[in-house]
UniProtKB/TrEMBL annotation:
Similarity remark: Belongs to the 4-toluene sulfonate uptake permease (TSUP) (TC 2.A.102) family.
Transmembrane segments: 47-65, 77-94, 100-117, 166-185, 191-213, 225-242
Recorded topology in the membrane: Multi-pass membrane protein
Protein name: Probable membrane transporter protein
Subcellular location per the Swiss-Prot or TrEMBL entry: Cell membrane
Domain of life: Bacteria
One Pfam family this sequence matches: TauE
Species assigned in the record: Microbacterium suwonense
Keywords of this entry: Cell membrane, Membrane, Transmembrane, Transmembrane helix, Transport
InterPro entries given in the database record: TM_pro_TauE-like (IPR002781), TSUP (IPR052017)
């Protein structure tokens, strides 16, 4: 894996930079990181590699936004997320790379369509146990199989009309906890290997740089622009995974 071509390393470096940016400024951009790694590495291997890079980004997201989390939302989502993680683990253990990519793409596109439809039909925020159960289960499932839970959670926070800093703070704690929980699952599948660890060690500084840039950007970003960027980047990542 360390003997990759220079163009492949360039894509991996870009993915690491965007991963850090996504953790502290534009959550939807994390999908681009997932797509870039999956285009260079086998899908299952890229899941493990991306997870470790995301954990580095989680540290900086917590430093910047830890005080803005809405803990009631996290507790409401927890049971459904746990169920989704278990389903995702079983799916990942039995499915091939192509099936994983297309399944995630279809889920993301469906969630975007549902979110936009709800916002068009009703100006009120989507809330309640049904919304938390649906989004939470899909978030747990997608984050386990392809580190793509970010877009699903982004759709949930957009549907509930969450302000930018609360969005980022709640997401920071959510993924910091979930990503650590996922480590033993992926290790048990044999996906966290010495070569993956070495590659991530090389890429980790770029995650840090991206996270620091993102912190500065988030302070200047209007809510409407933030929402639109999340939706557009999620759609682009999902379409790429699908085709």
């Amino acid at each position: 894996m360390i003997d990759l071509e220079p163009w492949a390393w360039a894509l991996l470096a870009l993915a690491a930079l965007i991963a850090g940016l996504g953790k502290t400024a534009i959550p939807g951009s994390a999908t681009i990181s997932v797509v870039l790694l999956a285009s260079v590495l086998p899908a299952r291997t890229s899941t493990a590699a991306m997870l470790l890079l995301f954990i580095v980004g989680d540290v900086f997201a917590l430093i910047a936004y830890r005080r803005h989390a809405h803990w009631r939302t996290l507790l409401r989502l927890a049971p459904a997320v746990i169920a989704g993680l278990v389903l995702g683990f079983l799916f990942l253990a039995w499915s091939g790379d192509a099936v994983v990519r297309r399944t995630i793409a279809i889920i993301l596109l469906a969630m975007i369509a549902i979110t936009l439809w709800r916002r068009w039909r009703s100006p009120s925020a989507a809330s309640g146990p049904m919304a938390a159960a649906g989004y939470g289960t899909l978030a747990g499932f997608t984050t386990m199989v392809a580190n793509s839970g970010g877009p699903v959670m982004s759709m949930y926070f957009l549907a509930t009309r969450t302000p930018v800093k609360v969005f980022l703070g709640t997401s920071a704690w959510f993924f910091a906890i979930v990503n650590l929980v996922k480590v033993p699952f992926l290790a048990g599948l044999g996906l966290i290997t010495p070569s993956v660890l070495l590659m991530d060690l090389v890429l980790a500084p770029l995650v840090v740089i991206g996270a620091l840039i993102g912190i500065r950007l988030a302070k200047r970003m209007p809510q409407q622009l933030f929402d639109r960027l999340v939706i557009v980047l999620t759609v682009l990542g999902a379409v790429y995974l699908l085709f």
